[in-house]
Sequence to fold (223 residues):
Amino acid sequence: MPLTSPLVRRGYAALSVFAILAAPLAAHAQDTIPRTLTLGGAARLAAQQSSAALTARYEAEQAGARADQQRAALLPSLAADATRGGNTFNTVTFGIPFPGFSPTGTVIGPVNTLDLRATAQVPIFNFSSIKGWHSAQTSASASDAQAASAAQQAASAAAAAYLTTQRAAAQVDARRADSVLADSLLQIARSQINAGVGVALDLTRAEAQVASVQAQLIAARNE
Fold:
């Protein structure tokens, strides 16, 4: 079917607008979109990349992350710390005279020290954290169901738009074929009149048929 038909142009324009509004694509998406859009392709594209489906999917991922965060409160935790230092000492500060050291004091050092510490915490029972984790899991499951529903609705809407466009294009094709046939019959009627073997009534009927088919073609294009 020629792509210059107004109805076909409007149909494909409608699908294009639907894809733009329902599917915010990344910069590389042009390489992943099929060149020939099929019914299944339109449904899959809408289910995967429509704005409603993407929003629901992101919300489901956020809900899953919140559930993981709540679960983390129930897991053991481990912390470690290391401190390195160096100190000098004056023997006179001890208040005890040491043999071999000056009575006025002798500076010792620096003495290097390394302090290593580790702590571990294991929650035994935390009712509040357990309840929060179960609630977050329930919310995550509900968000997953909403994401699946949004994808299904987007796919259904895309499939309906695709079928509407294809049906309209088929109707235009049928009316165009009727127009070609009516024109051919009109030419035959005129040839018979010119040859003196035709009937004027047949010519009138052929002209009326052409006018009727043209009106139907215009109506099909404007639907």
